[in-house]
């Protein structure tokens, strides 16, 4: 629109969107104006009330000193155990930041009187530290530098984990030394395969050498355990933005103030990703090795890019550290009702643990890893790691909606044009996953802590069809079934084979426990007795026959059972005791047909039921043989009590 100037008569243009020119002389200066310094990404938490001493009552160092201390700590983490020199550590992306002078950098193993230290190629180079980057920054790094990284239509970041699309339990090793020889569970049935200190050092040196050879590495300083009295500081050093974003989501994210005062970590992970171990090294059985040294408080990952190794490695650490503090570590889901009643959910894959613990009418404390201390329950993690195969908006609304910007999608397949994910596609793997911060779940309880549990629910998908839909357990039975960790797998696609296969996993997470299962079971029973919790065995599997002849117990029936447990109404029911397993079965549950509550009733062939029941009982007994000779406490009375709670036939 033109307007006429009264004085000059010259037409002028009316610039409604006019503004002063930018305060920049070069394009680089203009780009620098885009970004301003802000606080570090953090997990939402309740602020401490004013007037208390606070976690950080000491004087705050100025920013330059803090950064120097931070770099010094990271430099110590990356230091070789054998050489006196190493790369100089500086912060920032090498392609977006000009290299700092050697005076501003920190070298490994700085010696004030070391003029005779030989100069190496390693000591001449800089290594750039990308420290606690935000999800947006990690997106940029991944898209720019890591092939196979794509932003999906929902905003999540799709990544590939390389050749390994799951954990490698046969390649996991734990250092056996004086401090762990008597504490840890070794031998038959144990997930802990031993290695010596020297071999760990060889693998650690290999991983550190690889990380130091890179132009840049990602460093995450984060926490485990929402209980502030028992929080663990962890540092993750990795070569990929994928790994950094994954752990950003899965661990508890520090506030800016906590990060400034982080100091020395309690445990460090060196993730060399695709770089393999040396097959000629003692104890190595493949090019992959996941090694934990509890004395050195370190973990080394070689030859696998699967991010779940870091998550479960830290879970193993907590299974070792927490019981030493008389805190029970648990592989379970956990939720809380609006009246403060807490329930723990144990169950192997396919039992419905995630589905049943994620309840719109209850607060989610966590989906996978927890601690039970004198303060109550607390989530170990800051995020969720959900399976994505066959995921649908209708069945898993909360998980579906959590897959948005910031979420890591592992090994999924998507449309090359629209970037819409096809969760039914197993082209890469059936083990597709989503890792997202727990606050992405709308009803998550922040902070992720709760009072002492009221109910302990052991889930089993019994494909033999002989366990009741629900039964109440006494303490001895709780320990027996907790140690057993039973479910059943379906042969299904194998031609001519329709028999279910019993699967047992001690404490419902045998791959991650460090101590003997009976120690965790005894702690569970002690805490249940101390705080008045009740245990329940819930079968989400088959009824009226085994897989192939019977039918799966309907999910609405199981939900009614879980609701009755939460409300406390099942405690007031009348019970009938079963044969062989000696389980207490309620005679009535609101909303559930009474005829299915006793597992024999729906079977047309009663003799077939009895034969199948004895078959499963025999499998339980055979599995328990490995635990039968382990004495708990000063005498074997508790061991005998647990054995007596098993099937009798």
From TrEMBL:
InterPro entries per the record?
A: PEP_carboxykinase_ATP, PEP_carboxykinase_C, PEP_carboxykinase_N, PEPCK_ATP_CS
Q: What is this protein called?
A: phosphoenolpyruvate carboxykinase (ATP)
Q: Does this UniProt record's set of keywords contain Lipid metabolism?
A: no
Single GO molecular function: ATP binding
Recorded metabolic or biological pathway in which this protein acts: Carbohydrate biosynthesis; gluconeogenesis
Q: What Enzyme Commission number(s) appear in the record?
A: 4.1.1.49
Region (Disordered), start-end ranges: 33-54, 84-117
Basic and acidic residues composition-biased segments: 90-101
Tagged with keyword Acetylation: no
Q: Which reaction does it catalyse?
A: oxaloacetate + ATP = phosphoenolpyruvate + ADP + CO2
Per its UniProt record, what Gene3D superfamilies does this chain match? 3.90.228.20, Phosphoenolpyruvate Carboxykinase, domain 1 (3.40.449.10), Phosphoenolpyruvate Carboxykinase, domain 2 (2.170.8.10)
Q: Which organism is it from?
A: Papaver nudicaule (Iceland poppy)
């Amino acid at each position: 629109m033109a307007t006429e100037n009264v004085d000059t008569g010259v037409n002028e243009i009316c610039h409604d969107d006019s503004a002063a020119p930018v305060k920049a002389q070069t394009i680089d200066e203009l780009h620098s104006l885009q970004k301003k310094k802000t606080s570090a990404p953090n997990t939402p938490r309740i602020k401490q009330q004013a007037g208390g001493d606070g976690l950080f009552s000491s004087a705050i160092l100025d920013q330059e000193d803090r950064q120097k201390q931070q770099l010094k700590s990271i430099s110590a983490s990356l230091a070789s155990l054998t050489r006196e020199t190493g790369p100089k550590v500086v912060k920032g992306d090498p392609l977006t930041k000009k290299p700092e002078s050697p005076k501003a950098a920190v070298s490994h193993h700085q010696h004030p009187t070391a003029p005779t230290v030989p100069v190496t190629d390693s000591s001449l180079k800089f290594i750039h530290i990308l420290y606690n980057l935000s999800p947006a920054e990690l997106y940029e790094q991944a898209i720019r530098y890591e092939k196979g990284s794509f932003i999906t239509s929902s905003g999540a970041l799709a990544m590939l984990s390389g050749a390994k699309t799951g954990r490698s339990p046969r390649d996991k090793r734990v250092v056996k030394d004086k401090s762990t020889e008597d504490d840890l569970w070794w031998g038959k049935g144990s997930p802990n395969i031993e290695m010596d200190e020297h071999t760990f050092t060889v693998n650690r040196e290999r991983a550190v050498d690889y990380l130091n050879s890179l132009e840049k590495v990602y460093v995450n300083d984060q926490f485990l355990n929402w209980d502030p009295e028992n929080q663990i500081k962890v540092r993750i050093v990795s070569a990929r933005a994928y790994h950094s974003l994954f752990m950003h989501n899965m661990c508890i994210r520090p506030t800016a103030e906590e990060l400034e005062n982080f100091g020395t970590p309690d445990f460090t992970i060196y993730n060399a990703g695709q770089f393999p171990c040396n097959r000629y090294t003692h104890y190595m059985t493949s090019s992959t090795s996941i090694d934990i040294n509890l004395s050195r408080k370190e973990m080394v990952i070689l030859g696998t890019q699967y991010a779940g190794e870091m998550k479960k490695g830290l879970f193993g650490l907590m299974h070792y550290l927490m019981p030493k503090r008389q805190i029970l570590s648990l592989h379970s889901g956990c939720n809380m009702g609006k009246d403060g009643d807490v329930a723990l959910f144990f169950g192997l894959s396919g039992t419905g643990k995630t589905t049943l613990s994620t309840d719109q009418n209850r607060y989610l404390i966590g989906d996978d890893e927890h601690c039970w201390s004198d303060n109550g329950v607390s989530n170990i993690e800051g995020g969720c790691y959900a399976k994505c195969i066959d995921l649908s908006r209708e069945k898993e609304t909360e998980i579906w909606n959590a897959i948005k910007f910031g979420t890591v999608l592992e090994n999924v397949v998507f449309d090359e044009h629209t970037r819409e994910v096809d969760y039914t596609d197993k082209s890469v793997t059936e083990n597709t996953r989503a890792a997202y911060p727990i606050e992405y779940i709308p009803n998550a309880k922040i902070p992720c802590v709760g009072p002492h549990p009221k109910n302990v629910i052991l889930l089993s998908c019994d494909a033999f069809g002989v366990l009741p839909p629900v039964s109440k357990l006494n303490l001895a039975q709780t320990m027996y079934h907790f140690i057993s960790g039973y479910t059943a797998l379906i042969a299904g696609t194998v031609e001519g084979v329709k028999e279910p296969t019993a699967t047992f996993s001690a404490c419902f997470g045998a791959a991650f426990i460090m101590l003997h299962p009976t120690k965790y079971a005894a702690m569970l029973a002690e805490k249940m007795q101390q705080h008045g919790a009740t245990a329940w065995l819930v079968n989400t599997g088959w009824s009226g026959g085994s897989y192939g002849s019977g039918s799966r117990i309907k999910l609405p029936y199981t939900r009614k059972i879980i609701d009755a447990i939460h409300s406390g109404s099942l405690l007031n029911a009348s019970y009938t005791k079963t044969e062989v397993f000696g389980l207490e079965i309620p005679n009535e549950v609101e909303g559930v047909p009474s005829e299915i509550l006793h597992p024999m009733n729906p079977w047309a062939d009663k003799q077939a039921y009895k034969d199948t029941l004895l078959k499963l009982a025999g499998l339980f007994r055979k599995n328990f043989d490995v635990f039968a000779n382990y004495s708990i406490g000063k005498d074997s009375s508790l061991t005998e009590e647990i054995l007596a709670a098993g099937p009798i036939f």
